[in-house]
Amino acid sequence: MGQVIQTITVEREYGSLGAEYARLLAQHLDWELIDHSLVQEVARRANVADAVAERCDEQLDPWYNKMGRAFWHGSNERAAAATEREIFDATRMTELIQEVIKERAAAGKCVIVGRGAACVLHGVPKCFHTFVYASTARKVRWFEQTFPDKAKLAEREIEATDRRRAEYVRHFYHAEWNDYRIYHLMLNSCMGFDAMIGATIEATGV
Prior knowledge:
- Helix content is 55%, strand content 12%.
- It is of the alpha/beta class.
- The chain has a single domain (7-201), classed as P-loop containing nucleotide triphosphate hydrolases (Rossmann fold, 3-Layer(aba) Sandwich), CATH 3.40.50.300.
- Strands 2-3-1-4-5 form a 5-stranded parallel β-sheet, sandwiched between helices.
- Helix 2 crosses helix 6 (90-107).
- The longest helix is centred in the last third of the chain and has 20 residues, at 154-173.
């Protein structure tokens, strides 16, 4: 890489155990893990409840929020900039997420999970981007074990979540979520966490 890596982003397919890999990687490096804490920090900055921010996490705005934004931006000329900041939706959520991600990356020594972090930090020095995937069978098995009461919905839920994440990245970053050209390293979690962490350390030199 020719530089000392200070930030590693982890994008992940649903059920691939990418978040668990990120947690173990951060633990191994003794770096900060930025996952759910990112949502909590956004909620704090926006002065909204954590649950409100969570509903907007890696989501697109419903059509009525978009219509509301169009109204404030277009037909109501008296709306001040402050009014825009009072509207909290997926778009505002993403603006704040980008802000926090850039700050954390500048501070360094962190592992950031999802939320389009690889796109936010694309081309930023000292950042390394990974994508975690797995076989459908592996992801279905994880879902069935984690949500036994919803086992019959496994494939549908997995596909829907991945589709949502892909649409989120496409909408806000104009990129394809699983495009290998965005990432430095693609990892199949079927290889196991030890091998995944070993490959990451070898690739980054941290």
